[in-house]
Design brief:
Layout (H helix, E strand, L loop, with lengths): L2 H26 L9 H24 L6
Length: 67
């Protein structure tokens, strides 16, 4: 098994899912019932922020082109 190809495939799949998630998010924020909650937003950034940085690093290292 070629782990490099497997890793590249996984990263590409993740990038495609990220784009789909981003599109859903953009649609959701247009809805008026969505209320901004600074405390929740700060928590989300604190929890997710390091994972995003790691993901971005891996995407750059794998030279994956954004969809």
């Amino acid at each position: 098994m070629d782990t490099t190809k497997l890793g590249t495939l996984i990263v590409k799949f993740g990038a495609a899912n990220a784009k789909a998630t981003f599109n859903v998010y953009n649609e959701e924020i247009k809805k008026p019932e969505l209320v901004e909650d600074p405390q929740t937003a700060n928590y989300d950034v604190a929890v997710i922020g390091p994972k995003i940085a790691n993901c971005e690093k891996e995407l750059i290292n794998a030279k994956v082109q954004a969809p």
